[in-house]
Design brief:
about 325 residues; two-stranded antiparallel ribbon; single chain; about 35% helix; alpha/beta; binds NADP nicotinamide-adenine-dinucleotide phosphate
């Protein structure tokens, strides 16, 4: 598994050091976004790591994301992100949420209507935005494109219209929100799933769950390590004269965010979870399912655990 680190909600001044540290201890994937308002700091961390020789550009995988107020200005958004990141290309460009917001509203990123609700551009289909993203592939300035926060319903609307399958669907994912339905659907279509907020986002609340602590105790490791190991383990099993590669956990990549050097290092460690561990972790969502990241767009994005809001698709 390639170690990845996220950059959301990093206070100014923290993220450059965090990115540089991550790249110096072996991380290869940096997850950024225009909306996080820190791509310039992320870029400074990348530049410092490249300059120090910690990593070469060709060994680095940089993801960034198109924000909702730029759905009708895809090329302009990419220009801005590349400039801030100080890069000629990104390895992966993702649509951050499948809903457009008013590009001429009262705020550049989070425009609101007088009643306080988000100023959406519901006449701009997310499919048209994706088709504009496809055109970026010909420029060489994005190596791959994909989506975030797509449910099965949204993917079923999108996929028949595209020429290039999304390489990735980045979604919230952890034992309290395993999202089996969309994970299995993505697997069936060859779309790689990346799990965000694996620790439950700010303050890592999932590390306090007794079920997670119990598995951590069994493996004599931290709750964080268990939560990261939940996603991407493969087990090589000797079977007669063949090696079978069995997905013990869920075969998806995982993005944890930390600005704390010791945690950045710790988050690279994963352990082998067995079926008993996975079954204990999977019981959590049956008892107390919870989604931690759900911005107030007022739109029904088609996730079974979050109904209500405007139905667009
Ligand atoms: N596509 C999307 O819509 C979307 C949405 C959300 C997130 N993401 C991406 O996914 C990344 C990760 O998600 P996230 O930032 O929401 O949450 P997360 O990684 O689940 O949790 C981050 C929190 O856990 C703490 N933490 C990290 N490692 C720890 C450890 N070993 N021990 C104890 N605490 C630890 C961090 O603190 P410190 O930083 O203070 O160490 C921070 O408070 C984001 O940064 C972003 O890149 C994408």
């Amino acid at each position: 598994m390639i170690p990845c680190t996220g950059t959301w909600q990093s206070a100014p001044g923290e993220v450059t050091k965090a990115v540089q540290h991550a790249l110096s201890v072996g991380y290869k994937h940096i997850d950024a976004a225009y909306c996080y308002a820190n791509e310039d700091e992320v870029g400074a961390g990348i530049a410092a790591a490249l300059k120090s020789g910690a990593i070469k550009r060709e060994d680095l995988f940089v993801t960034t994301k198109l924000w909702c107020t730029y759905h009708t200005r895809v090329e302009e958004a990419l220009d801005k992100s590349l400039k801030s990141l100080g890069l000629d290309y990104v390895d992966l460009y993702l649509m951050h949420w499948p809903v457009a917001m008013n590009p001429h509203g009262n705020h550049e990123k989070f425009p609101k209507l007088p009643d306080g609700s988000r100023d959406l551009s519901l006449d701009r289909p997310h499919i048209d935005t994706y088709l504009d993203m496809e055109k970026l592939l010909q420029t060489g300035r994005v190596k791959a494109i994909g989506v975030c926060n797509y449910s099965v319903r949204y993917l079923k609307a999108l996929l028949p219209k595209v020429s290039v399958m999304p390489a990735v669907n980045q979604i919230e994912n952890h034992p309290q929100l395993p999202q089996w339905e969309v994970v299995e659907f993505c697997k069936s279509k060859g779309i790689h799933v990346t799990a965000y907020s694996p620790l439950g986002s700010t303050g890592s609340p999932l590390m306090e769950l007794p079920e997670v602590k119990a598995v951590a105790g069994k493996h004599k490791t931290s709750a964080g390590t268990i939560l990261l190991s939940y996603h991407g383990m493969t087990l090589h099993v000797h079977f007669y004269d063949h090696f079978l590669i069995t997905q013990v956990a869920r075969g998806i990549s995982v993005l944890a965010k930390s600005v704390t050097p010791a945690r950045i290092e710790q988050n690279r460690i994963i352990v082998q979870l067995d079926e008993t561990d996975m079954s204990a972790l999977n019981k959590i969502s049956q008892l107390a399912p919870k989604r931690y990241v759900y911005p107030e767009f007022g739109v029904d994005f088609g996730f079974p655990d979050k109904q209500g809001g405007i139905v667009v698709v």
